[in-house]
Known about the structure:
Blueprint: E1 2-5, H1 8-22, E2 24-28, E3 31-35, E4 40-44, H2 62-73, H3 82-85, H4 103-108, E5 110-111, E6 129-130, H5 132-142, E7 150-152, H6 156-159, E8 176-183, E9 189-195, E10 198-199, H7 200-223, E11 227-234, E12 237-240, H8 244-252, H9 270-287, H10 300-317, H11 328-335
Parallel strand pairs: 1-4, 9-11, 10-12
Antiparallel strand pairs: 2-3, 3-12, 4-11, 5-6, 7-8, 8-9
Amino acid sequence: MEYQFKGINTALQTLCREILDKGVWRETRGFKCLEFPEPVLIKITDPTSRWCTIKERKWNYIIPYAESLWLALGYNNLDDLPGYYVKSIYDYSDDGHTWRAGYGSRMRRFNNSIEDYKEGKNYKYEGYTVDQYKFVEESFKRDIHTRQAGITIHDVIKDDFDVEGNIKKTKDTPCTRTLHFQMSPDKKLNFTTTMRSNDGIFGFSAINMFNFSFMQEYWSSILNIPVGEYYHFANNFHIYENKLDMVIQIAEASEYKDEGFTYDKKFKSLFEFDNMCKILEKAEEDYHIGNFYIPEEFDDFFSDWAKIFIYKNCKMLGKDFNMTFVNPILISILENK
């Protein structure tokens, strides 16, 4: 099944209507799911239309921004970033501290140990690791038309069997399998995500479309290639029974338009991007105690990223937010919260 949309709003509304019409019910792991009977390929022509403004969706703005920084830093522990803002995510942790299948460690510090990743700012794995971000950058340096610039998320050593040779028992198996970058014939950066399983509410519309198109945008600056199209392949696209009412409300709502916004960005290499992420990490920690500022090194892209954290911490600390976002879509979303 193939679908094409401009952005997240039309994608989500149409997919909700389609799954209600064409979906089949199946029980898996004790949960009833309504799912498409075939794999689904979703093409997004404007990946900068990633902000879900559908009121019926009740999109939580802080999760994708916190997780995007978490991924870029190469972490999978919950205590430093996402867990601070959303306590319910600990429900998916095996040990109460990490997302075993968190993508950050796999992208930035892939290793061949059978031991699960436990990556945070104070943890250092002593063995051999591979920074797959660096591989993407070097692949494009070697050949701007490369077809090899891919990132692997699934780790067969950690994810398939435990140390005794039994099927791994875990609350957290990676849904995303691969990420792939490639220059299109019209010299734009296309991005393809492949997923073994994809929840339309908790996954696709909450974080996946945002995180990966956000990644596509910052990589377009790192590689100096304009943003192209985003392709999202889900081997199984579904919604859980407990979200059926929301899906119906989204499907029956008036038509929402897609809204895109492209940021001005100063960073032009992975080294520069990583440096900005480390500065943002330090600033975000300061925001927890009410020390609000925008680092002078930040461009519009990082400035709004920081302001999202400032806005949320102002709410948590009972303080007024006295800044203005560069992106008017963010202004509109937060005014309606």
